[in-house]
């Protein structure tokens, strides 16, 4: 996911960017409101999945920047600020912000909020809305999202509900590393504690059922990613 980080403090931006990149994000850093608006302009580039917007910018108020971003589209915006009063939060949400994080924040919470906002906006969820008759093709693997069917080389493979959800999540962004905590949160809707072994078992089962052990790659110490020759969304 491409993420626009709007932060005028280079030290803060560098530290946060390093964490975000380590968790699979492609980070673009803007140091001012004007830089942020300009970064959102090129239509030919891949759109941003989320904007992390600091309110204390040198050239214009962050609330003003949020309003401009919202006028240009529906890119999810998470405001990041030291202003903790309820009035400030309400003002930001009324301007179109999708979430509001108060400094100092826990990095794990921030990452969870980013993924939650992306899911709500449809930029980070494991599957399209019901009724969207599309299928994912990854090499010889075909994943029919609406009917929850999976086939390999034309032969249907029977998966459990969680196995399908796990495969569909990874298949949405081939090559992108999904953190274990993120997978547990999105597929099992719970926290990492006590569920790690369950994830490992499901990954092993998928590799066995699909007869493609190299399809899901373990990234040691981080999580998993789906490796395939090509991936596209096509009509069934």
TrEMBL record:
Span of domain Response regulatory: 2-118
Stored Pfam families: Response_reg (PF00072), Trans_reg_C (PF00486)
Transmembrane regions listed in the UniProt entry: none
Keywords of the record: DNA-binding, Phosphoprotein, Transcription, Transcription regulation
Record keyword DNA-binding present: yes
CDD domains listed in its UniProt record: REC_OmpR (cd17574), trans_reg_C (cd00383)
Positions where 4-aspartylphosphate occurs in the chain: 54
Limits of the OmpR/PhoB-type domain: 133-228
DNA-binding region ranges: 133-228
PANTHER family: REGULATOR OF RPOS, SENSORY TRANSDUCTION PROTEIN REGX3
Protein name per Swiss-Prot or TrEMBL: Sensory transduction protein RegX3
């Amino acid at each position: 996911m491409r993420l626009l980080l709007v932060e005028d403090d280079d030290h803060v931006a560098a530290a946060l960017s390093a964490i975000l990149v380590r968790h699979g994000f492609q980070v673009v850093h803007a140091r001012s409101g004007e830089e942020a608006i300009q970064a959102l302009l090129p239509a030919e580039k891949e759109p941003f999945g989320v904007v992390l917007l600091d309110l204390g910018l040198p050239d214009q108020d962050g609330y003003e920047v949020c309003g401009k971003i919202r006028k240009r589209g529906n890119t999810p915006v998470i405001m990041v600020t030291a202003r903790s009063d309820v009035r400030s939060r309400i003002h930001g949400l009324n301007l179109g912000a999708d979430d509001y994080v108060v400094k100092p924040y826990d990095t794990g919470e921030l990452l969870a909020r980013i993924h939650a906002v992306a899911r709500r906006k449809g930029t980070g969820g494991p599957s399209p809305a019901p009724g969207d008759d599309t299928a994912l093709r990854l090499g010889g693997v075909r994943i029919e999202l609406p009917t929850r069917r999976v086939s390999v080389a034309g032969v249907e493979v029977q998966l459990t509900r969680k196995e399908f959800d796990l495969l569909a999540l990874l298949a949405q962004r081939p090559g992108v590393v999904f953190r274990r905590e993120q997978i547990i949160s999105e597929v099992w809707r719970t926290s990492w504690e006590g569920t790690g072994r369950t994830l490992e078992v499901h990954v092993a089962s998928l590799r066995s059922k699909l007869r493609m052990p190299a399809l899901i790659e373990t990234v040691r110490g981080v999580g998993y990613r789906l490796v395939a020759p090509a991936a596209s969304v096509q009509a069934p």
